[in-house]
Amino acid sequence: MQDFRTLPTGPLTLSNVVVPACLYGQTGDLVRTDLSIENGRVGAGGGKVIDMQGAMVLPAFVDMHTHLDKGHIWPRAGNPDGTFMGALTAVGEDRAANWSAEDVRRRADFALRCGYAHGTRAIRTHLDSLPPQDDISWPVFREIREDWAGRIDLQMANLVACDRVEDGGAFRHTADLVAEFGGVLGMVTYPVPDVAERIRTFFRMAAERGLAADFHVDETMDASSETLRAIAEAVLETGFSAPVVVGHCCSLSTQDEARALDTLDLVAKAGINVVSLPMCNLYLQDRHDGRTPRNRGITLVHEMVARGINVSFASDNTRDPFYAYGDLDMLEVLRQATRIGHLDHSRSDWPLAFTANPARACGFDAPSLAPGAPADLVVFNARSWTELLARPQSDRIVLRRGKAIDRTLPAYSELDDLMESA
């Protein structure tokens, strides 16, 4: 794709750019400033001066909740009715039939090339880890992580339903695998009768292996689904000290207000990080044949931030039965989250939820515009928020270590043979 302008190589100063004030630890909206680049890092000044005429600059994005192993299977495994159960069934059938090491590798690499071209520098992906898929996917993703080192920092978390979590058997093997490959222990929670005990078993196994935790939580409009509360109570009762991330938390949006806010008080006390996935949740939640959806499915992000909870946004699924669209473009996530969650007319520090907040939750190096930080930047042909969010910004400039990258997106036809062979 054509950048909106060509920048020279070598030391330079991007003069007359606008940057969200929160990225400098300031209050307010946008600040006008100069950004210098030297030897691949943000400098203190000098070099060839380029008048950027008010172009907006953000640090490279962090996408902390994705599913690279599922990505881009829609042509061979579409969701028959757009429902959550339709997605579960379609993915399960496709996984059993098609997820060889080569199939997973090629689709994941395709997705990573998309995210990289859009300006993302770090990604956490969940990996379906039911046997025998765990022994197929984890070695592949270790190789992918090594191949992409220096371009995208990649973390992996296993994905297993809570009714399969027990201190022994297949889940013990998966937990050992996660530890061996330097991953994050993951689980999907929903209200099975013994979910609280399974959560405690999960935390015990994570603690024994020194692993952080990442949960898919209450991905439903059913107000009675309160496993987020059980997770917070378990953290407080067990003293689990490694980072904990919870994603989705959709049922909070349909619960009694007082009950939901009381749960958030527990989440804040437990120090749990939250990631909201508004695009996927909007696609799946409150879907009924012939009925217009009434609820958005987005969790209570404003109320969370007001309590000091570390809140982030992420892509989630891309072109698979859980979400038919998407391209691992965090600007698209920012645009849609602003609309879906009414982030506008609100706080001025929401840009942190796409950069520094997810980095902190996952332990990635924090994106920064401070002198000495890597010059991993995304430069937009937009001078204000309304200009930035009104268009896809397909002509953005992506700098890595101060150099503009080739932003050519891979053609979907690259994967045609994988779709046809299925």
From TrEMBL:
GO biological process: cytosine catabolic process
Gene3D superfamilies, sorted: Metal-dependent hydrolases (3.20.20.140), Urease, subunit C, domain 1 (2.30.40.10)
Pfam families linked: Amidohydro_3 (PF07969)
Domain Amidohydrolase: 48-96, 196-395
MF GO annotations: cytosine deaminase activity; isoguanine deaminase activity; metal ion binding
Keyword Metal-binding among UniProt keywords: yes
Keyword Transport: no
Keyword terms: Hydrolase, Metal-binding
NCBIfam families: PRK07583.1 (NF005759)
PANTHER family assigned to the protein according to its UniProt record, in alphabetical order: CYTOSINE DEAMINASE (PTHR32027:SF0)
Protein name in the entry: Cytosine deaminase
